[in-house]
Amino acid sequence: MRTLIVIFCLAVVSSANGFQIDLSERGSSTGTLSADDSSLQERDQQEESSKRASDLRDLRLAKYALLAGDTAKAERYIERLGSDHPRLSHIVDRYLALSAFMQNDYLKTYNNLKSERLNLISSYEEICLLRLLSLFALGKNHPDYNKIAPEYDNCRVITNKYTNTEHFWLTNMKNIATGDIAKLPGSKLTDFTSILVSDDTTRLWMKLALYSNREKLILKNIGLLPEESYRNIGIRELLGMAYYRDGNLERAKEFLEDLNTPNADNIRGDMALTKREWELAYGHFRLALKRKDDSLNALERAIPLTWLLEQWQDGLDLISRYVGEDYDPIKLLALETSLRIRLGQYDKADGNLRYLTSKLLGSAPLDIQLMKSFVSLMRGDLKQLKESSAIACKSFDGLNCWIADQLLVWDDLSKTSKRTDEVNASIKSVDFMMSEAKNDITPLTEKVLIDQRDIEELDSREIKLQLQ
Predict the structure, then answer these.
(1) Which of 1, 100, 142, 428 is deepest in the core (most CB within 10 A)?
(2) In this predicted model, which residue has the larger pLDDT, 51 or 15?
(3) Greater pLDDT, 100 or 40
């Protein structure tokens, strides 16, 4: 073994020497190598340029996905870049944090932004607000809660050039997060000298009061509003909302009755819901969607109403628009499937159910199994019907237990259940037989063997004997 190693080393050395000798014998070889190096360098630059273009494309697509609210797609594009990208790492961290924030995962948001490399001025102004908001949401239980005050001071200074309201919301969110409720504007009468200087500042204060569930503070100080404020549509919407939340529906209606805005329509719809006027409420929400087709408030209320009012096709149309904070593609697809079943679109419903079953890894809830059983019955898929009814029966669904039993009786239960003719015309219905029986019934005649009065007399005599 040692001999082989020595021979191998000698062979390497001799080949290296031979290469050096060959170079010394070729006087013009230096120029040839320089050309090769130039070619290699050019190829490396082309590869780097192509990689850079690919990275920028993924970054751009991730940004568009975030703007569209599709966090899952955005994260797939970001994963292609990698968190340790030499030039884009700070952007990758920011996009991942933004995606987590949109999914209400505030701990993940903060963890993506707490790196020291993001404290550079060029990066800090782009992430400090998101870092602060995640700390606000995490609250006092987070170990970095005490960093809110210095983080707020630094962020306010570096982003001051971007605000027109002197960081009104940031300041008051900080007061709420730290428990300084007394510092919120409107707590003192003297605060209104700065609050009511314009309609913009008035709206800001009213929105904050509604956000912090202090609508009574608005109603208490409504007399301080200048006359021209009542002509402002935004202020009237907020006053209507304040009265609605306070339970004074008539007063709220007065402020909203002649406003043609999505917010006013949504509030009117909410008022109709409190009175259980489903059709009127649905009309208001549809009108709000006509004015603003992506109004989440209207969508979240109109979609359940489509089921109550049996507007199945409208339900499908509204579901396709919904991308709210509670967006769950599995639940939405299940709801879409139920609507398609009501429309009789069994083939499309079956495709959805197969996809849901695969995504849920075979552990679909009972509602999914019930839909699978019904769709299988309607499509004549006896194999699937047998499987789904058995699973639903094990979950104690009585109807599917009956279906599983009938599958043992009938050759094709699907065809049998769809028959419209009488199974046997000669067999009379139970109701008909009962109606016939009523005409034939004769009352029973009782043959009196012993008179009841004699029995009572004997009983009374026995009682007297016992008393003696």
Answers:
(1) 100
(2) 51
(3) 100
CB contact burial 418-450 (16+ within 10 A = b; e otherwise):
eeeeeeeeeeeeeeeeeeeeeeeeeeeeeeeee
257 and 265 Cβ atoms separated by less than 8 Å: no
Tally of CB atoms within 10 A around 172: 20
- When pLDDT is cut at 50, 70 and 90, the band that residue 438 belongs to is low
Q: Among candidates 224, 280, 270, which has minimal Cα distance to 247? A: 270
3-state secondary structure of 453: helix
Distance, CA of 148 to CA of 144 (rounded, Å): 8
Q: Say what angle helices 398-406 and 382-394 make with each other, to 10 degrees.
A: 140
> Which tokens belong to 128?
């400090």
- What φ, ψ does residue 283 adopt, rounded to 5°? -65, -40
439-445 average pLDDT score: 71
- pTM for the predicted model, two decimal places: 0.69
Amino acid identity, position 23: L
Burial (CB count <10 Å: 0-12, 13-18, 19+), residue 80: middle
Note whether 91 and 123 are within 8 A (CB): no
- Cα of 169 vs its chain's centroid, Å: 26
Q: Are 373 and 403 in contact (CB under 8 A)?
A: yes
**74 within 8 A of 99, measured Cβ to Cβ:** yes
Q: CB–CB of 361/337 below 8 Å? A: no
